[in-house]
């Protein structure tokens, strides 16, 4: 009898309060200001958060095509009040660099890198009887997605070689790496010419 009376006084179970955006944090941006990312996301402090909000914000940011990668996380802003939500927006603008402008008001600016990103590796070697081999390995990273590269080894001297190599690393599979390549080389023995 006392249990029924207590439930009547309390009014039964309460419906959870609507979740509201208490704050928005932006991380990973270099060229795009925080306010611009918030504007592109189309959400502001005080907005109602439902099951589709995170996906909608992510889709709006991806649709701008200004970011290589977008991730939106929903976190609780307060332990005591679960209706207060913090949205964390993580963006990757891709390769950028800082330019010195010489202007006293704005001495530097952030700009996107254009053109291929190339990596260079010197190739040096010596083998008895064949002499000194020298050259370079030029590679273009992420040519076929993350963890991939296309490389061009070129050497002169004791061993002349020109080729192309492709490598793609695969995480979590039975096959962890795919390699393919072709090359032409010539090695001249100095004794036998």
List keywords for this structure.
single chain, 193 residues, 2 domains, five-stranded antiparallel sheet, four-stranded mixed sheet, 3 helices, 15% helix
Q: What report would you give on this structure?
A:
By secondary structure, the chain is mostly beta strands. The chain folds into 2 domains: 2-92, membrane protein fhac (Ubiquitin-like (UB roll), Roll), CATH 3.10.20.310; 119-187, no CATH class. Helices cover 15% and strands 47% of the residues. The protein has helices at 2-10, 34-41, 53-63, and strands at residues 19-27, 48-49, 69-76, 84-92, 96-100, 108-112, 119-127, 131-141, 148-157, 159-169, 177-187. The strands form 3 sheets. It has a 5-stranded antiparallel β-sheet with strand order 7-8-9-10-11, with no helix packed on it. 8% of the residues are buried. Mean pLDDT is 84; it is low at 1-9.
